[in-house]
Amino acid sequence: MAVVEDDLTLVFSALADPTRRAILERLAQGDATVNELAEPFAMTQQAVSKHVKVLEHARLISRTRTAQARPCVLETVRLDAAVGWIARHRQVWSDRHDRLEEHLAVLRAGRRDDEETTR
């Protein structure tokens, strides 16, 4: 079975993990090194590095070089693309929900009419 790795799939796969989402939330406050990102987690730095690599692969973060440090930087363009996808599909489902609600209202009104004529 072929593994599909389009950009959106990579983003949503990366966002599926709570540790990676927490890392992104931390980076929303400012750039940080892997050591700084690892501080709040009860896991090894290597484990955090693996999460960072997944986020880099999804291009949700990048690394810069400042002297000896390589701080991680949040890249919001991919998040914006994911938000856009969700917004488009939310509108489709909202429209479908509205049509279903209208249809159910018509059915309920028809049932009331039937009940009143049988009395």
Automatic annotation (TrEMBL):
Q: Pfam families annotated for this entry?
A: HTH_20
- Gene Ontology molecular function, alphabetical: DNA-binding transcription factor activity
Question: What's the domain of life for this entry?
Answer: Bacteria
- The protein depicted here goes by the name ArsR family transcriptional regulator
The organism is Actinoallomurus bryophytorum
Every HTH arsR-type domain range? 1-94
Q: Which CDD domains does UniProt cross-reference here?
A: HTH_ARSR
Checking PANTHER family in the record gives: SLL0088 PROTEIN, TRANSCRIPTIONAL REGULATORY PROTEIN
Show the SUPFAM superfamilies listed in the entry. Answer: Winged helix' DNA-binding domain
